[in-house]
Amino acid sequence: MKVLIVGGGGREHSLAWKIGQSPRVDRVFVAPGNAGTATEAENVDIGDSNVPALVEFAKQNEIGLTVVGPETPLAAGLVDALGDSGLRAFGPSKQAAELEASKVFCKNMLRHADIPTADFRTFRDGESAKAYLSEREDAQVVVKADGLAAGKGVIVCDDRQEALDAVERIAGSKEFGEAGSQLVIEERLVGQEASVLAITDGRTIVTMPAAQDHKPAFDGDKGPNTGGMGAYSPTPLVTDSLLSEIEERVLVPTVHQMKRSRRPFRGVLYAGLMITKQGLKVLEYNVRFGDPECQPLMMRLKSDLVDLLEASVDGKLDQLAPLEWDPRPAVCVVMASEGYPGPYQRGLPIRGLDEAATVPDVKVFHAGTRIHEGQVVTNGGRVLGVTGLGNSTAAAKLQAYTAVKKIRWDGAWCRKDIADKAIGI
Fold this sequence. Notes:
Its EC number is 6.3.4.13. Belongs to the GARS family. One of its GO terms (molecular function) is phosphoribosylamine-glycine ligase activity. Pathway: Purine metabolism; IMP biosynthesis via de novo pathway; N(1)-(5-phospho-D-ribosyl)glycinamide from 5-phospho-alpha-D-ribose 1-diphosphate: step 2/2. There is one protein chain. By secondary structure, the chain is of the alpha+beta class. It is built from 15 helices and 22 strands. Helices cover 31% and strands 26% of the residues. The strands form six sheets. A five-stranded parallel β-sheet has the order 3-2-1-4-5. Strands 12-15-18-22-19 form a five-stranded antiparallel β-sheet. A four-stranded antiparallel β-sheet has the order 6-9-7-8, sandwiched between helices. The N and C termini lie far apart (46 Å).
């Protein structure tokens, strides 16, 4: 079978690497891919949002399964377009993808399904949001742009003035473009975040081991939000009993509510959770594999990923054997370009990749890279996801950072504290 993976980040590199291991797969294509996917698969020069060209490529090349990585093509209806052409694709429909594409839709869905989440209000313009903030007590809130903003449209505010400034950035100066056409203002929750990803066919749910992401740019969870500076799995924060509660109180009601809303959900249901003193709360939903959470999960998955994805597409998850996982923890450290999540330079040569590849139980997943004149160079803000396995979380962290130290380019940086929460530092 031929498989097409849509996207060009670290998530897609890890999916290409894992899918390529399936004995049922003959060829793997990645559109547009990066320098790393070029070594695991065949890159195709088609942007991940070019729906007509992707559909045409899948038809011409008799692609047996298309796996859509990023949220933007899902929100644009790529899965629907492939289905209309008689092609099989893993991921939610455009209507179901609104669970991530619209935070207003998501929060209203959570409310209707009685799923625990932060108290919130939604606004269609900046003036009404500012009026609301001026009338309420000066409290800590989170201001969110409604639409897709590459993980950066969420602003955590310490006081009213910061919240007013956030509204101005989103709705006034349109820092996140059309994503800011509506806003959500919600109470700021205190606790630890966890990510729980599940595969569903709209009826059956297969829950993966919990992971923990690191959104803020700098050590100690300081600085602006990013697309994610690292992740690890499993996390001791999510015990077996808590995972069962998440399935019962979050995942199952969500699948039922989406079905009732006539938006049946198939694909990855990714719950971003906050574990507070008051209990479990849903921060948001994503409708695809997280990046960088996908990398440690793919490192630990021992089952054939293609079997899992096809069972979701075909509505046969109830017939799938239980997934097998490597019991060892995995830690992914994101290496980023100087300036990220703000402006950064591209095209800087990366050194030390071959040396890093010699570190045992480590895989360097490429994200923002490309090949220029035979040399791997930077091509994004988040450049690499260096992922290590170990007999403990501390050992996995050591492997990942041992490889990180071998890789260099001008201005390269990373957080130094990925997985410290699990280690107890």
